[in-house]
Amino acid sequence: MILENDICIVKIDVDEAYTIDSADNRHYDILLNPSNYKRGDFTKTLAIHIDMCSKHLHIALIGSCLISDLDCAVLDDQILTVLLDQEIIQINTTDGSMIRHIQLDGLGCNFAIYKVEKGYILYGEIEITMLDFCLVKKWAFSGKDIFVSVSGKIPFEMKENSICLYDFEDNYYEIDYEGNRIH
Protein backbone atom coordinates (compact mmCIF):
# COMPACT_ATOMS: atom_id res chain seq x y z
CA MET A 1 0.00 0.00 0.00
CA ILE A 2 1.30 3.46 -0.89
CA LEU A 3 -0.02 6.72 0.61
CA GLU A 4 1.18 10.16 -0.37
CA ASN A 5 0.63 13.78 0.61
CA ASP A 6 2.61 17.06 0.58
CA ILE A 7 4.66 15.97 3.61
CA CYS A 8 5.69 12.41 2.78
CA ILE A 9 5.24 9.17 0.88
CA VAL A 10 4.41 6.10 2.98
CA LYS A 11 4.85 2.54 1.72
CA ILE A 12 3.43 -0.31 3.80
CA ASP A 13 3.95 -4.01 3.19
CA VAL A 14 4.30 -7.18 5.23
CA ASP A 15 7.76 -8.25 6.40
CA GLU A 16 7.28 -12.01 6.04
CA ALA A 17 10.73 -12.77 7.48
CA TYR A 18 10.41 -10.77 10.70
CA THR A 19 10.60 -12.74 13.96
CA ILE A 20 10.28 -11.04 17.32
CA ASP A 21 13.64 -10.83 19.16
CA SER A 22 15.60 -12.36 16.27
CA ALA A 23 19.06 -11.04 15.43
CA ASP A 24 18.41 -11.92 11.77
CA ASN A 25 15.69 -9.31 11.19
CA ARG A 26 16.35 -6.53 8.70
CA HIS A 27 17.23 -3.19 10.27
CA TYR A 28 14.43 -0.82 11.31
CA ASP A 29 14.90 2.65 12.77
CA ILE A 30 11.91 2.14 15.05
CA LEU A 31 10.17 -0.96 16.42
CA LEU A 32 6.55 -0.53 17.55
CA ASN A 33 4.90 -3.41 19.40
CA PRO A 34 1.93 -1.71 21.11
CA SER A 35 0.39 -4.96 22.41
CA ASN A 36 3.73 -6.32 23.65
CA TYR A 37 3.64 -9.49 21.58
CA LYS A 38 6.30 -12.05 22.48
CA ARG A 39 8.28 -14.49 20.37
CA GLY A 40 6.04 -17.44 19.53
CA ASP A 41 2.83 -15.38 19.49
CA PHE A 42 0.91 -15.45 16.22
CA THR A 43 1.93 -12.09 14.77
CA LYS A 44 2.52 -10.28 11.52
CA THR A 45 4.87 -7.34 11.04
CA LEU A 46 4.12 -4.38 8.82
CA ALA A 47 7.17 -2.72 7.29
CA ILE A 48 6.45 1.00 7.07
CA HIS A 49 8.80 3.13 4.99
CA ILE A 50 8.32 6.88 5.31
CA ASP A 51 10.02 9.08 2.72
CA MET A 52 10.15 12.80 3.59
CA CYS A 53 12.55 13.73 0.73
CA SER A 54 15.57 14.53 2.91
CA LYS A 55 14.72 12.03 5.66
CA HIS A 56 13.70 8.37 5.63
CA LEU A 57 12.24 6.28 8.45
CA HIS A 58 11.85 2.52 8.52
CA ILE A 59 9.34 1.29 11.11
CA ALA A 60 8.46 -2.28 12.07
CA LEU A 61 4.90 -2.41 13.42
CA ILE A 62 3.98 -5.71 15.08
CA GLY A 63 0.34 -6.78 15.30
CA SER A 64 -2.03 -9.71 15.13
CA CYS A 65 -1.44 -12.38 12.49
CA LEU A 66 -4.80 -11.33 10.99
CA ILE A 67 -3.69 -7.86 9.84
CA SER A 68 -3.58 -6.94 6.18
CA ASP A 69 -1.39 -4.49 4.30
CA LEU A 70 -4.20 -3.59 1.87
CA ASP A 71 -6.32 -0.54 2.79
CA CYS A 72 -4.87 -0.76 6.32
CA ALA A 73 -3.93 2.91 6.75
CA VAL A 74 -4.94 6.52 6.25
CA LEU A 75 -2.51 9.45 5.97
CA ASP A 76 -3.65 12.87 7.28
CA ASP A 77 -0.95 15.53 7.21
CA GLN A 78 1.81 14.04 9.40
CA ILE A 79 -0.44 11.45 11.12
CA LEU A 80 -0.53 7.88 9.84
CA THR A 81 -3.50 5.91 11.20
CA VAL A 82 -3.00 2.15 10.88
CA LEU A 83 -5.59 -0.59 11.43
CA LEU A 84 -4.17 -3.73 13.04
CA ASP A 85 -7.28 -5.97 13.09
CA GLN A 86 -8.70 -5.11 16.55
CA GLU A 87 -6.27 -2.24 17.21
CA ILE A 88 -5.61 1.17 15.76
CA ILE A 89 -2.32 2.98 16.10
CA GLN A 90 -1.51 6.52 15.07
CA ILE A 91 2.08 7.36 14.17
CA ASN A 92 3.71 10.75 13.72
CA THR A 93 5.41 10.45 10.32
CA THR A 94 7.97 13.16 11.08
CA ASP A 95 9.67 11.18 13.86
CA GLY A 96 7.98 7.76 13.96
CA SER A 97 6.60 8.24 17.46
CA MET A 98 3.35 6.59 18.52
CA ILE A 99 0.65 9.20 19.10
CA ARG A 100 -2.22 6.95 20.10
CA HIS A 101 -3.04 3.26 20.45
CA ILE A 102 -6.54 1.94 21.03
CA GLN A 103 -8.03 -1.52 21.37
CA LEU A 104 -11.34 -1.93 19.52
CA ASP A 105 -14.27 -3.74 21.08
CA GLY A 106 -15.90 -5.00 17.88
CA LEU A 107 -16.72 -8.49 16.70
CA GLY A 108 -14.62 -10.49 14.24
CA CYS A 109 -11.66 -9.28 12.19
CA ASN A 110 -11.30 -5.83 10.69
CA PHE A 111 -10.05 -5.74 7.11
CA ALA A 112 -9.76 -2.06 6.11
CA ILE A 113 -9.98 1.56 7.28
CA TYR A 114 -11.23 4.52 5.22
CA LYS A 115 -11.41 8.22 6.01
CA VAL A 116 -14.83 9.83 5.58
CA GLU A 117 -16.18 13.30 6.34
CA LYS A 118 -16.82 12.70 10.05
CA GLY A 119 -14.13 10.16 10.89
CA TYR A 120 -13.22 6.64 9.82
CA ILE A 121 -15.18 3.66 8.49
CA LEU A 122 -13.86 0.21 9.37
CA TYR A 123 -14.75 -2.67 7.07
CA GLY A 124 -14.95 -5.70 9.29
CA GLU A 125 -15.81 -9.34 8.90
CA ILE A 126 -18.93 -9.04 11.09
CA GLU A 127 -19.34 -5.29 11.64
CA ILE A 128 -19.06 -2.06 9.73
CA THR A 129 -17.93 0.50 12.31
CA MET A 130 -17.80 4.29 12.35
CA LEU A 131 -15.17 6.02 14.50
CA ASP A 132 -14.81 9.76 14.93
CA PHE A 133 -11.43 11.46 14.45
CA CYS A 134 -10.63 10.83 18.14
CA LEU A 135 -11.13 7.09 17.41
CA VAL A 136 -14.31 6.92 19.51
CA LYS A 137 -16.90 4.43 18.25
CA LYS A 138 -20.03 6.19 16.95
CA TRP A 139 -21.95 3.22 15.56
CA ALA A 140 -21.65 -0.33 14.25
CA PHE A 141 -23.78 -2.30 11.78
CA SER A 142 -24.02 -6.09 11.47
CA GLY A 143 -25.86 -8.32 9.03
CA LYS A 144 -27.06 -11.91 9.17
CA ASP A 145 -23.64 -13.34 8.27
CA ILE A 146 -20.06 -12.24 7.61
CA PHE A 147 -19.44 -9.50 5.03
CA VAL A 148 -17.73 -11.61 2.38
CA SER A 149 -19.26 -12.81 -0.85
CA VAL A 150 -19.12 -16.26 -2.42
CA SER A 151 -21.19 -15.17 -5.41
CA GLY A 152 -18.54 -12.83 -6.81
CA LYS A 153 -20.39 -9.67 -5.76
CA ILE A 154 -18.44 -6.89 -4.08
CA PRO A 155 -19.02 -7.44 -0.33
CA PHE A 156 -18.16 -3.86 0.71
CA GLU A 157 -18.49 -0.76 -1.44
CA MET A 158 -18.48 2.86 -0.33
CA LYS A 159 -20.57 5.18 -2.47
CA GLU A 160 -21.17 8.92 -2.16
CA ASN A 161 -24.19 8.64 0.16
CA SER A 162 -24.18 5.02 1.28
CA ILE A 163 -22.26 1.84 1.96
CA CYS A 164 -23.38 -1.25 0.02
CA LEU A 165 -22.80 -4.68 1.54
CA TYR A 166 -23.30 -8.35 0.71
CA ASP A 167 -22.93 -11.08 3.27
CA PHE A 168 -21.91 -14.72 2.93
CA GLU A 169 -25.57 -15.75 2.37
CA ASP A 170 -25.82 -13.17 -0.47
CA ASN A 171 -28.07 -10.85 1.58
CA TYR A 172 -27.84 -7.23 0.43
CA TYR A 173 -27.63 -4.28 2.82
CA GLU A 174 -27.29 -0.58 2.20
CA ILE A 175 -26.55 1.82 5.05
CA ASP A 176 -25.97 5.55 5.23
CA TYR A 177 -22.98 7.18 6.87
CA GLU A 178 -24.91 7.50 10.13
CA GLY A 179 -25.27 3.71 10.37
CA ASN A 180 -28.95 3.65 9.39
CA ARG A 181 -30.19 0.91 7.10
CA ILE A 182 -31.54 2.23 3.82
CA HIS A 183 -32.24 -1.10 2.09
Terminus-to-terminus distance:
32 Å
Shape: globular
Number of helices in the DSSP assignment: 0
The Cα radius of gyration reads: 17 Å
Rounded mean pLDDT is 94
Based on secondary structure, the structural category is mainly beta
Strand order in space, largest sheet: 1-2-4-5-3
Q: Residue share in helices?
A: under 10%
Helix and strand pattern: EEEEEEEEEEEEEEEE
Uncertain residue ranges: none
Largest sheet: 5 strands, mixed
Task: State which percent range the strand residues make up.
Answer: over 45%
Number of strands: 16
Task: Outline the fold blueprint.
Elements: E1 2-4, E2 9-14, E3 30-32, E4 43-51, E5 56-64, E6 73-76, E7 79-84, E8 87-92, E9 98-103, E10 110-116, E11 119-124, E12 127-131, E13 137-142, E14 156-158, E15 163-166, E16 172-175
Parallel strand pairs: 3-5
Antiparallel strand pairs: 1-2, 2-4, 4-5, 6-7, 7-8, 8-9, 10-11, 11-12, 12-13, 14-15, 15-16
